[in-house]
Write a structure and sequence with these properties.
Blueprint: E1 13-15, E2 22-24, E3 28-32, H1 36-41, E4 51-55, E5 60-62, E6 66-69, E7 76-78, E8 80-86, E9 102-109, E10 112-113, H2 114-123, H3 128-131, E11 137-139, E12 143-144, H4 145-148, E13 155-160, E14 163-169, H5 177-187, E15 195-197, E16 205-206, E17 212-217, E18 223-230
Parallel strand pairs: 3-15, 5-11, 6-18
Antiparallel strand pairs: 1-2, 3-4, 7-10, 7-16, 8-9, 8-15, 9-12, 13-14, 13-17, 17-18
Pfam family, one: FAA_hydrolase
Organism: Mesorhizobium marinum
GO molecular function: hydrolase activity
Length: about 230
């Protein structure tokens, strides 16, 4: 048995619909620029391929939780996305085999310090400061693929205080889920416990303390989170 010099961090995990078991989160992979309409609203070149970045596992916020308004930003944005959870992985996964590695799906938010993203893009800097900060990855309960079927279409929606801000269909993704898994596995050894944020459609915008965000994807458990006061 390993003896640690300090208390070991808790294992990040997600709930599973209809089960007392938990899904342990190893890594959070994120796909940017994966819907044409969102690329256009960000004034980016839609001919560029989607970008790949990561968030730390301890950025997870579960359904019903509260996100403190983060330090080091005055322009805190939501990005509602379909989440893919993996039960297996490896290197160089073929597209035709990709769906066999899926454990299930969830809905989530890629919370963003938008003011710093603009500076990072302009200077070609890494995205950690804008994407990988504390509690920047709210994710709802996972629906097993056996219950949902393999998802190829379905509305992804986000409401802020009851008003619809994002509403699109996952069929409009530039890179489809099988392609995302295959492409990621060219660069990373995918593993059980990895989750993938597949990109956000148009309609992103800012939230402030007190705002309530409701996120959904057809056929999956919905998620609600609230923006709290400034992080201490």
């Amino acid at each position: 048995m390993v003896s640690y010099a300090i208390a070991a961090p808790a294992q990040a995990h997600l709930d599973i619909v209809g089960s007392d078991e938990k899904f342990p989160v190893r890594r959070i992979y994120c796909i940017g620029k994966n819907y044409v309409a969102h690329i256009r609203e960000m004034n980016q070149d839609e001919r560029d391929p989607p970008v790949i970045f990561m968030k730390p596992a301890d950025a997870i916020v579960k359904n019903g939780g509260e996100i403190p308004y983060p330090v080091f930003t005055s322009n805190f944005h939501y990005e509602c996305e379909l989440i893919v959870a993996l039960k297996s992985g490896g290197y160089n996964i073929a597209e035709e085999d990709a769906s066999s590695h899926i454990f299930g799906y969830a809905v989530g938010l890629d919370m963003t310090r938008r003011d710093h993203q603009a500076a990072a893009l302009a200077k070609g800097l890494p995205w950690e400061v804008t994407k990988s900060f504390d509690l920047s990855a709210p994710v709802g309960p996972i629906t097993r693929v056996e219950d949902s079927g393999v998802l190829e279409n379905g509305h992804v929606r986000l409401k802020v205080n009851g008003d619809v801000r994002q509403d699109a269909d996952i069929s409009l993704m530039i890179w489809k889920i099988d392609e995302i898994i295959a492409k990621l596995s060219e660069q990373h050894r995918l593993m059980p416990g990895d989750i993938i944020m597949t990109g956000t459609p148009a309609g992103v915008g800012a939230v402030v303390t007190g705002d309530v965000m409701d996120c959904s994807v057809d056929g999956l458990a919905p998620m609600q989170v609230r923006v709290g006061g400034v992080a201490a």
